[in-house]
Amino acid sequence: MATLDKLNREHGKNTVRLGMPRKINAWELRCEHRTPRYTTNWNELPLVTS
Q: Can you give the residue ranges of the DUF4113 domain (predicted)?
C-alpha cells in the first residue's frame, strides 16, 4: 500500500488503484451489446413456438 500511495502522490490521485470492479465499467457495457451465443450456451438457444 505504501508503494500505491507513493505513486498516487507523485503522479496524481487514482493513477494506480487496486483491481476491483466498479459498478459501471467497460466490460459491463461491452457485455450488454454482445451477440447471443447460440452455439456455445444451451440457455441462449431460441425457442420456437407455434
A: 1-48
Cell triple for 47: 425457442
- Judge whether 44 and 36 are in contact, CB under 8 Å: yes
The domain in which residue 22 lies consists of 2-33
Task: Provide the domain count of the chain.
Answer: 1
Q: How far apart are CA 11 and CA 5, in angstroms?
A: 10
Residue with cell 466498479: 22
Q: In tens digits, what is the pLDDT along the chain, a chain of 50 residues?
A: 898 899 899 999 888 888 766 666 665 656 666 776 767 778 777 788 87
Establish if 7 belongs to a structural domain. Answer: yes
- Nearest 5°: phi and psi at 2? -60, -40
